[in-house]
Amino acid sequence: LGIFALLQVKVLPYQSIDWFGPAKQAKMPSPSKLDKKEAYHNKLCKYLDTFEKAFIVHADNVGSKQFQDIRKGLRPESIILMGKNTMMKRSIRLYCETTGNDKWACILEHLVGNVGVVFTNSDLGDIKKEIDKYKVGAAARVGVVAPNDVTVPAGPTGMDPSQTSFFQALGIATKINKGTIEIVSDVHLIKAGDKVGASQATLLSKLGVKPFKYGLNILQVYDNGSLFDPAVLEITDEVMLGSVAAAIANVASVSLATGFPTLASIPHSVINGYKNVLAVSLATEYDFPLSKKVKDILANPGAFAVAAAPAAAAAAPAAKKEEKKEESAEEDMGFSLFD
Question: How many whole angstroms separate alpha carbon 268 and alpha carbon 218?
């Protein structure tokens, strides 16, 4: 009977079986959205053609008014472009494929999170200073990750003595001075990268301290196909000159120690050679013009001291006369206050 029952079963065709319900058709974007995406793509490609430098910036905790001020401050030398990361990556990839110019491809992996691009052809250091000008102070909110260390300085707080228990709960040493609570020593309250706790936020609020500054945070710097850390922009001409001078001094030291002459060590070698010749001349009867003058000074130092004194005295009045001439020239401007 079982076999007979199975044979009576009518097998339905595969197409008539609805396994997953009715199929959902992909919804096509409206023409207006397509136009906006196309306009965004064209605008980004235009910027990629026009500019050779850029900043990749992080825009968390930046208000709309603050962002508007940053845009105004950077124009017309620089332009900020924000948008969906997927749209920016797609446009940059298409640009690289169609033009054969893949210089901008290096920024693709850094377009993660709430980021944008500041395009410019101006000096990167000047643009960075302009961006940093628009960072504003903000209060510490509970649960926010601290972007920097927060230290509460020692001194009066202006709070009445009834709130000492609040400081004791935080482990902050205090004393009562002139009717107010005074913090005894500096307190490292929050470390960079830690989340702000409720008690820490309350304390900073009571003290009226806004420990954080928010603005566009520069993540990477792009310059003609290369990416580097923004800390490189902190290197000034003075720092570079100091580093070069230290390197030259090191080369000269190694050259002198090994006896291998280089351009850096030759001036030192010449001076050392002159000192040796002068020492030999002073120790023997051999003379040359410069050593003879040194020998005369060593033989009769008093005579040279007496001769040097009138010369110094004569130089002082001459300097005073020059100062008086300059003052009279400044005073005689060719008109009077009462003309």
Answer: 45
Distance in angstroms (rounded) separating the CA atoms of residues 39 and 45: 10
- Calculate ∠ Cα 193-194-195, nearest 5°: 125
Nearest CA to 271 out of 256, 257, 286 is that of 256
Asked if 194 contacts 172 with a C-beta cutoff of 8 angstroms, the reply is no
- For 18-52, what is each residue's pLDDT tens digit? 445 555 555 666 667 888 889 999 999 999 999 99
Instruction: Please enumerate in sequence order all residues whose Cβ is within 8 A of that of 57, keeping only pairs 6 or more positions apart, or say none.
Output: 80, 115, 116, 117, 118, 131, 216, 217, 218, 219
Closest to 156 (Cα-Cα) out of 139, 181, 132: 181
Q: What are phi and psi of 260, to 5 degrees?
A: -105, 110
| Buried-state track 220-249, b at ≥16 Cβ within 10 A, e below 16 | bbbeeeeeeebeebeeeeeeeeeeeeeeee
Cα angle 156, 158, 160; round to 5: 115
Other Cβ atoms within 10 Å of 145 Cβ, number: 12
Please tell me the distance from the alpha carbon of residue 90 to that of residue 41, in angstroms, as a whole number.
9
Q: Which residues have C-beta within 8 Å of that of residue 249, sequence separation ≥ 6?
A: 264
Tell me, rounded to whole angstroms, the distance of Cα 36 from its chain centroid: 35
Q: 0.70 exceeded by the pTM?
A: no
Write the DSSP string, 158-207.
Answer: ---GGGHHHHHHHT--EEEETTEEEE-S-EEEE-TTSBPPHHHHHHHHHH
Q: Are strands 180-183 and 78-81 parallel, antiparallel or unpaired?
A: unpaired
CA atoms of 228 and 221, how far apart (whole Å): 5
Q: Rounded to whole angstroms, how far apart are CA atoms 60 and 76?
A: 24
For the stretch 53-74, pLDDT in tens is 999 999 888 888 888 999 998 8
Q: Which two tokens stand for residue 243?
A: 């580093």
**Do 118 and 51 touch, CB atoms closer than 8 A?**
no
